[in-house]
């Protein structure tokens, strides 16, 4: 018998937010003892996630440069190359690359920053300049 909510309707699984599953897969890979297969990731994530879904997410992450893979028999062993911040940066760069007027996008982004975030960005840019002079 199906599990039902108070109104008698069947419960539906909570839908993950965009990027949430990718972040969970990356977190699992970061916790791995080394390169692991998709089955290992699937076990760590639990929740009845289909093996094909895990493969799809790993393949997408590979396409984004967030994970690396190496042949392991007929399958692949996966390792992270980015953390959650790195994945977010990849997404931001992909959005920026898709726009025709990069300067307008960057200007709009910067003007919408909080004063604290603006200062962080200024500090990071200054640090990048200093490192470039070494």
From TrEMBL:
Q: Which InterPro entries match?
A: BlaI_family (IPR005650), WH-like_DNA-bd_sf (IPR036388), WH_DNA-bd_sf (IPR036390)
Keyword Repeat annotated: no
Keyword DNA-binding (UniProt): yes
UniProt keyword terms in alphabetical order: DNA-binding, Transcription, Transcription regulation
Any Pfam family from its record, for instance, is: Penicillinase_R
Q: Which domain of life is it from?
A: Bacteria
Which Gene Ontology BP terms does the record give?
A: negative regulation of DNA-templated transcription
The Gene Ontology terms for molecular function here are: DNA binding
* Family assignment from sequence similarity: Belongs to the BlaI transcriptional regulatory family.
Name under which the protein is recorded: CopY family transcriptional regulator
Q: What organism is listed for this UniProt entry?
A: Streptomyces kanasensis
